[in-house]
Design goal:
Elements lengths: L1 H29 L3 H9 L3 H8 L3 H6 L3 H11 L29 H27 L4 E3 H14 L3 H8 L6 H15 L3 H10 L6 E8 L3 E2 L2 E2 L3 E8 H6 L3 H9 L5 E8 L15
Antiparallel strand pairs: 1-6, 2-5, 2-6, 3-4
Helix pairs in contact: 5-6, 6-7, 7-9, 8-9
InterPro entries: F-box-like_dom_sf, F-box_dom, FBXO4
GO cellular component, one term: SCF ubiquitin ligase complex
Protein name: F-box domain-containing protein
Length: 278
């Protein structure tokens, strides 16, 4: 009985301490220097930042600050230029922005707008690849058109991971994401491989086949030369294989008359079948 009373007294003391400290902690948070609070919020990911904004009025007002969302926009989409950014108002600067400023939430709106737009664009690329690869193979012309769409929209690495590095979509779409990371974002090696592994697509394979014009020997033209390589997405991310990446980058040029990308287990259509479509 004495033990129970002792435990109860200690519990009551602890609860009293917590109830006493709670207003003090809330007061400390409310009186944090603005630059310190901004620094704390700027270290968070978007999801955590949104969660923090639900904690109190203080954090809700601070978490929509342009100084935070501008850094998030620039970090997620490094390929954006100044023409894509919101125009600054002469009546308010980043250092004197307040909740009453008409441009106070412009960077946050830009972030949310681009996030939605890129999701829609990624879905359109997925539908395009599906339409062009009904037989599980994709001609290099369509493949490069899909890559150009990503370039024009200026996808960021997070967008590629979110929308293209999905094990449930066609492996050709995964390959397009890898190609874009290597050639446009400059992301390769361990960083890219780690992302592929986290998405569970590093071991997915594709087959790249290309045909070169047959050589002329003693006035006779030999048959077109056929080449093929089976590679994993992880291999492409780590090895600078000019025989594969070079063919994908250049497409049909000079002596290469056709390039076809297909999933594992696909048998390519006969070369003569699509000669008239090139």
């Amino acid at each position: 009985m004495k033990v129970e009373n002792g435990d109860r007294r200690r519990t009551d003391s602890f609860l009293s301490f917590c109830s006493f400290q709670q207003p003090k902690l809330a007061s400390i948070i409310n009186y944090l220097p603005h630059d310190v609070a901004i620094k704390i919020a700027s270290l968070l990911q978007v999801r955590d930042l949104c969660a923090l904004s639900c904690c109190s009025t203080f954090w809700r007002e601070l978490c929509v600050s342009d100084s935070i969302w501008e850094s998030l926009v620039r970090k997620r989409w490094p390929l954006l230029t100044s023409f894509d950014f919101p125009s600054s108002s002469s009546s308010s600067t980043s250092s004197s922005s307040s909740a009453n400023s008409p441009n106070f939430k412009k960077w946050r709106k830009l972030y949310l707008k681009r996030h939605v737009e890129l999701g829609v664009r990624a879905r359109s690329v997925e539908k395009f690849v599906e339409a062009c690869s009904r037989s599980e193979s994709l001609e290099v012309r369509d493949y490069l058109n899909a890559v150009e769409t990503l370039i024009a929209t200026r996808f960021g690495f997070e967008d590629v991971q979110r929308f293209l590095f999905n094990p449930k979509v066609n492996v050709l779409l995964n390959l397009i994401g890898v190609h874009y990371c290597l050639t446009c974002l400059g992301i390769q090696g361990d960083e890219l491989v780690e992302s592929l592994r986290a998405s569970e697509i590093s071991d997915r394979h594709v087959c790249i086949k290309w045909w070169k014009v047959g050589r002329w020997i003693y006035g006779f033209r030999r048959r077109d030369e056929s080449h093929s390589r089976w590679v994993s997405l992880a291999y492409l991310a780590t090895e600078d294989d000019e025989h594969v990446l070079g063919v994908l980058r250049r497409g049909t040029i000079h002596e290469v008359v056709r390039v076809q990308i297909s999933a594992v287990g696909h048998t390519s259509t006969p070369w003569s079948y699509k000669t008239d479509q090139l």
